[in-house]
Amino acid sequence: MDKEVCEGGKKSLEKEKMECMFKLNSYKMVYVFKSEDYMYRRTALMRAHQSHERVSTRLHKRFQAWVESWVKEHVTRDMSAETTKWLMGEGRDGLLPCTTTRHPEVLQYMNINKYRVKYGTPSKAP
Questions:
Q1: Among 10, 48, 15, which Cα is nearest to 32's?
Q2: Percentages helix, strand, coil for the chain, rounded to the nearest 5?
Q3: Which of 36, 38, 100, 105 could pair with 17 in a Cys bridge, judged by C-beta atoms 3.0 to 4.6 Å apart?
C-alpha cells in the first residue's frame, strides 16, 4: 500500500467498486465522489434508529404547523366542510352510490386517516 501511495497517491478498490485517494502530506483518506459504496461510522445506524422517531415527529409537527397556517389564510369553513363531505362521499349528485369509512391509524409515529370506499350496486334509470 505504501508503494501505491508513493507512486500516485491513489488506490482503487476494484472489488468493492469504491475509490479512495490518500493525501500524501497528511495521510488522510478521501473517498471519490460518485463511487458506488458508502462507509458509515460503526454507531451511525444505531444512532439513526434511536433518533428516527424524534426527528420524524419534529418534522411532521413543523409541516403540520405550516399547513394549518396556510389553511387559516386560504380556506374558509364552507370549503373545509365541502371537502369533508366530498371525502366521505356525501352530498354529490351524479356519482355512484357508495359508503366511505374513515379508519384512523398510527403510521411512522404519526396519526393518519385511511379512507375505504365500498360501492353499492348502481341503480339503472328506466
A1: 10
A2: 40, 25, 35
A3: 36
Cell digits for 108? 411512522
Please give the pLDDT value at position 60.
92
Q: Measured between alpha carbons, how far is 38 from 19 in angstroms, rounded to an integer?
A: 11
Q: Where are the beta strands (DSSP E) in 1-126?
A: 10-13, 18-22, 29-31, 98-107, 110-119
- The predicted pLDDT at position 6 comes to 45
Question: Beta-carbon neighbour count of residue 103 at 10 Å?
Answer: 9
> Which residues are CB-neighbours of 108 under 8 A, at least 6 positions away?
56
Cell numbers for 3: 508503494
Q: CB under 8 Å to 17, separation ≥6 — which residues?
A: 35, 36, 37
DSSP state of 36: S
Kindly give the parts of the chain with pLDDT less than 70.
1-21, 27, 31-39, 122-126
Within 10 angstroms of residue 123's Cβ, the number of other Cβ atoms is 8
